[in-house]
Amino acid sequence: MNKITDITGVIFDYGGTIDSRGVHWSEVLWAGFQHMQVPVTKEQFRECYVHAERELARVRHILPNDNFLDLLRKKVNIELDYLVNNGLIADSSEVVSEGIALYCYNAARECVEEARPVLQALSERYPMMLVSNFYGNVDSVLRDFDLRRYFKGVIESAVVGVRKPNPTLFRLGVDALEMDASKVLVIGDSLRKDIEPAESLGCKVLWIKGKGWTPDEDAQTHPCTITSILQVPPLTL
């Protein structure tokens, strides 16, 4: 990919973009379930994953000071409880729950460390914002991973009351940068939730494409696509 020109600011998505190489987080959790040999099919796992996401959206389980390991422990417990309550597994133990959470946390930390040189280099040249659909604790997650210092500010769905793909979330990010949208590059892992709403505002975009939630998502294409944050091309002012 050629240089992206006329950039004065950058907006990053967080989950999936920085912490999982563009791979949908359901796939990371599924790998954790397999690692701990939880005896369920992928279809059954997807049921408990969706249930947990809906539960976390409905009830405030995640607290502002929770780091990512705290979050994962709560999410995995909800998933395992669903499987037990629906007779899909006989029982679950703290050893299994903790093993899944640690597996996924370590996977995220590995991805974060891989992304760090790119974030460092970009933050030295451009003001950056983070715009994320998250649970109200993304600032704590960033601080735990020592990422907060790269960003001028954070726009989080649970805090502002708007979720992607509503482009308002990105508009808030652009406004915080005090720049014209055409001068802002948005980097995210979701075509529908990141790339399309950012483009609707006139932002430049880069789609980090990993394994998505559905085959239809995997089949989608976009001219500004990379497969790794390490492939972010040179930017010019």
Describe the protein:
- With 237 residues, the chain is α/β, with parallel strands linked by helices.
- 48% of the residues lie in helices and 11% in strands.
- The protein is built from 9 helices and 6 strands.
- It has a 6-stranded parallel sheet.
- Helix 2 (42-58) crosses helix 3 (68-85).
- The longest helix has 32 residues, at 94-125.
- The protein is elongated.
- The model has no long low-confidence stretch (mean pLDDT 96).
Could you name the key traits of this structure?
single chain; 237 residues; alpha/beta; Rossmann fold; 2 domains; six-stranded parallel beta sheet
Number of domains: 2
SSE pattern: EHHHHEHEHHEHEHE
Identify the overall geometry: elongated
Rounded to the nearest angstrom, the radius of gyration is: 18 Å
DSSP helix count?
A: 9
Into which percentage range does the β-strand content fall?
5-15%
Draw up the topology in text:
Elements (H helix, E strand, L loop, with lengths): L8 E4 L12 H11 L6 H17 L9 H18 L8 H32 L2 E5 L5 H7 L8 E4 H4 L7 H10 L6 E5 L2 H10 L3 E5 L6 H5 L5 E2 L11
Parallel strand pairs: 1-2, 1-4, 2-3, 4-5, 5-6
Helix pairs in contact: 1-4, 2-3, 3-4
Task: Summarize the model shown.
The protein has 237 residues and is an alpha/beta fold. The chain is built from nine helices and six strands. The protein folds into two domains: 9-23 and 112-231, 3-Layer(aba) Sandwich (Rossmann fold); 25-107.
